[in-house]
User: Which sequence fits this backbone?
């Protein structure tokens, strides 16, 4: 029952979206006394792009490994396409595409052969794999690299090849763990474009990230995770509306003065966050807040008015920034 997935010939097949494809209830994973994932619950409908946003060590990768069936949960319920990954691992994995945090391509093999060999693991026939590999190389913009060695590829190309490889079995759900870490801005944008296209084909995307711009770009809905727990859930726009103001004024007074100047800014805007390197002033109208700063005779070294982002939401919920 494919839902807008590409068939081997590259044509779209449309089917009805099939309700919830992933559901977790009180999902928990403990290592000794430490709860890496501490009782989280969420449900993902078919075709949604669902994100887990949080700093490193928040429990995002552990959650992904439980969904992918490579780590057994300690407690709670988990269902993927109606199946429990602990008891139906192979069937669950047949529906999943997994893009791990570290590319684990076979450096010895050429680019196209990476796809073919991986497809053989699924027992897929060569008559299917050869045209599918060519279609995926085109999708990943790697057609001219088909015969290149993997170790000759750039980081962005390797990432695209890892994604292409994860699509060989036409998964209905794609798990992406930190998909663009370490990539330059252009490579990230190419990758985002490829992920948008998959979403348009009806593939359900689950991704972890600690980049708020990535979460804002790619996720229909996300959970903000910190220390193994869910702090908030909603669409990026919803979360910003609920937990922040429309605009933020970033002021830098020089590292020694940021902390002391906080008191002189009281009463401007709705609230202040004093960080070691800057002061964040939350206001509905950033420009008018900045005028009030000047009217008090305060002269920041730099000032910037911007829209609120998920970074601000995270700071509000946890008291610290995403990238510590």
Assistant:
């Amino acid at each position: 029952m494919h839902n807008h997935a590409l068939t081997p010939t590259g044509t779209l097949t449309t089917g009805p979206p099939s309700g919830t494809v992933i559901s977790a209830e009180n999902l928990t994973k403990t290592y000794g006394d430490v709860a890496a994932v501490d009782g989280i619950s969420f449900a993902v409908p078919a075709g949604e792009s669902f994100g887990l946003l949080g700093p490193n060590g928040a429990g995002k990768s552990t959650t992904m490994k439980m969904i992918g069936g490579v780590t057994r949960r300690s407690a709670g319920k988990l269902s993927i396409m109606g199946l429990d990954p602990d008891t139906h691992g192979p069937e669950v994995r047949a529906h999943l595409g997994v893009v791990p945090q570290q590319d684990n391509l076979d450096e010895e093999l050429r680019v196209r052969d990476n796809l073919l060999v991986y497809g053989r693991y699924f027992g897929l026939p060569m008559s299917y794999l050869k045209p599918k590999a060519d279609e995926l190389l085109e999708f990943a913009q790697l057609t001219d690299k088909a015969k290149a060695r993997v170790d000759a590829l750039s980081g962005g190309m390797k990432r695209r090849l890892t994604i292409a490889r994860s699509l060989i079995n036409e998964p209905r759900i794609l798990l992406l763990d930190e998909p663009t870490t370490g990539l330059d801005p252009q490579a990230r944008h190419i990758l985002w474009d490829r992920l948008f296209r998959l979403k348009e084909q009806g593939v359900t995307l689950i991704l972890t990230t600690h980049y708020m711009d990535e979460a804002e770009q790619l996720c229909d809905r996300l959970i903000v995770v910190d220390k193994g727990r869910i702090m908030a859930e909603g669409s990026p726009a919803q979360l910003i509306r609920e937990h922040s103001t429309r605009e933020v004024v970033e002021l830098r007074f020089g590292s020694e003065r940021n902390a002391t100047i906080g008191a002189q800014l009281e009463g401007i805007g709705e609230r202040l966050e004093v960080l070691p390197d800057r002061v964040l002033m939350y206001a509905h109208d950033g420009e008018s807040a900045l005028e009030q700063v000047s009217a008090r005779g305060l002269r920041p070294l730099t000032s910037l008015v911007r829209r609120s982002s998920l970074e601000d939401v995270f700071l509000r919920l946890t008291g610290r920034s995403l990238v510590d």
